[in-house]
Design a protein that fits this description.
The structure holds three protein chains of three kinds.
Chain A lengths: L7 H28 L10 H32 L6 H23 L15 H24 L4 H17 L9 H36 L3 H22 L12 H11 L2 H17 L7 H24 L3 H7 L3 H30 L7 H35 L4 H6 L2 H26 L19
Chain B lengths: L2 H25 L6 H23 L6 H23 L1 H8 L1
Helix pairs in contact in B: 1-2, 2-3
Chain C lengths: L1 H6 L27 H27 L1 H9 L3 H26 L3 H31 L8 H29 L3 H27 L2
Helix pairs in contact in C: 2-6, 2-7, 4-5, 4-7, 5-6, 6-7
Classes of the chains: A mainly alpha, B mainly alpha, C mainly alpha.
Chain lengths: ~450, ~100, ~200
Amino acid sequence: MRYESQKIAAWYWYGALLVFALQVTFGLIGGIVYVLPNFLSELLPFHSIRMLHTNALIVWLLLGFFGAAYYLIPEESEREIYSEKLAYIQLAIFMLGGVSAVVGYLFGVTASHGRSYLEQPLWIKFGIIVAALIFLFNISMTVLQGRKTAITNILLLGLWGIAIFFLFSLYNPANLVLDKMYWWYVVHLWVEGVWELVMASILAFLMMKMTGVDREVVEKWVYVIAATALFTGVLGTGHHYYWIGTPSYWQWIGSIFSSLEVVPFFAMVVFCFTMVWKGRRDHPNKAALLWSLGCSVLAFFGAGVWGFLHTLHGVNYYTHGTQVTAAHGHLAFFGAYVCLNLAIMSYAFPHLKNRAPYNQVLNMASFWLLSSGVTFMTVTLTFAGVVQTHLERVNGMSYMDAQSQLGFFYLMRLGAGIVTVVGALLFIYAVLVPRTKEAISPASAATAPAE
Amino acid sequence: MDRNALRRLTACWIGLVALTAAVGFLSDFAPRLQQLAVAGIALATLLKTRLVLAHYLGLRAAPGALSGFVSAIAVILVLVAVAIGVTPLLANAFS
Amino acid sequence: MIHESFSRQAPDSASASAVASDSGWGPLGTLPGNPIMWILIVSELAVFGAALVGYAGARLRDPTGFVAAQDSLDRIAGAVNTAVLLTSGLFAALAVEARRADRRAAGRWLLLTAALLGCVFLGVKGSEYARELAAGHDIDSHPFFMFYYLITGFHALHVVLGLIILAIVAWFDSLENYETGAAFWHMVDLVWIVVFPCLYLMR
């Protein structure tokens, strides 16, 4: 850690990891409900479980992004964060909002509209906006007063975009078609637009630090990735407008642009592997490197390939809203954004705690557990989705009759979910619990000197 | 201004306008000699894109990029021309 | 080489000497203008290419309907517009040559001419749209017109964007800006050259 204010990141990440644990726990409970439909049905109905699972995901990923920004901006801008106090106030507001939302959800307190991911009551939305404004002010001031780099430019663009597009959550037209259109302004333009910019800049920072490749080279990649992400992602929103009541030309706009959304993800894979291949630095933090490479690859498959699977309107006509979507959602979020957060945490925690990269073997084991858990879940849900599509959309079977045919897939998904939860807990243990030496001593990596 | 460049660009422009007239002319034959006209239009169009890429866009200096772009456009034109050219055959097959 | 590089341990700090690997743009470095513009050009070609292939595919399902709809287009206006845009492209290319020879005033006049011809293109296109709409052909009336309006409309938007870019280049007239702006303008030209025969002429 080269700047005192970088330690803010640690507090954000403690919060993030706490919510991460909650998120996978609710996921596990949801997975049990798919197998035993009456599980907790009185105490915690499925719609609440689902809402907690998805909302907690967004909250902890955002906390992770905030932490990442507070960690990397001082190093990039070569100065301390503008105001540490504001950063902690922002964290307090955000956590208070997040916890109130969770408690509220448990008692059925939600916004009156049924917009997934945006179920927060209005006053919590305002809290989020206030926290976002404080954050943007704080980091923008830091960047403006410090050294400007491509990494901070793209990161700031992404973070400003996150805040601006969140404003559409406040706009709720009574017309259901318009309601959904603006809902996607938040949901799609986040994950398939501005979040990709955050992803590109954090990956670029990690690659530069861990492989020692020239900043100049890394910056060019960042610009190419950011340009293609925005070019394809913005009009790619059209792939959500096929069957919601919008004019039919959206089918072609959506199909064409969203098919190309795989390009930035592919570029990120090529970028990460090229940097590692070209880099002459044998970085001791093998776990962070594994997460970074894993991030690019799993994002390519989850977001790129699984997204393309059902993005063409001719295909989506049949698969819309089936388990194919759930399969894509799980691997895309995990690969692109969960892995990204866990990569920067794996990289930064040893610095923040001023220790050699420790518990690397456990951390890498958690990578393989989490990745294989989520990948198996994705494959299982894909098959479930294909069967469901055929039964419902081709044979015309009713929704619940089709569901009753999918039991075995849901059982396998539950197994994958258990592995995922174990992996998540292992990760948290590996990065947070201090040790003086590796739990299992690897051949050479652990003997590398600390920075 | 470089006199050679001026001459080269003007010649390129003349070629482009001539080919535009040619595709318009070929189009008038479409109702009678459909496949031939479509193929001719596609070919003339490909020549036009090659002229624009090489001279206007300056890819003369980068032959690899030039052939890459021309091949990509060729694939698009072939797909469109074949889809349009086969339709009368399909119509005959199904009628 | 690779083995040697990986066996070396280096400290993780920004001050560590960075690798002197190739810092160029690779194949993009050899092209005129800003390499990001070429990323954009490739992306645009991919989008228009996909749209035209989609058009050809949709046409297979209703060839007679497509031919009937196509026949209502004004092929003469389309051909005139092609010539207008190609001439505009010539002026843009000449503008770059003028700037290269350091004749900055001449470069600006040539750019202005190119931009004026771009406006002529938009005028002709606008009158075509007006006639089609007056005849009751809107974006929802037939799949052909959906593709026609989407593809040519998206292209026309690029013409507008190109005019803005040319204006910016005339203002900030470095040679790199000239090459970058002209590259965008020629891309608009190139796309039209392919779109025009596919939508208007191939029947």
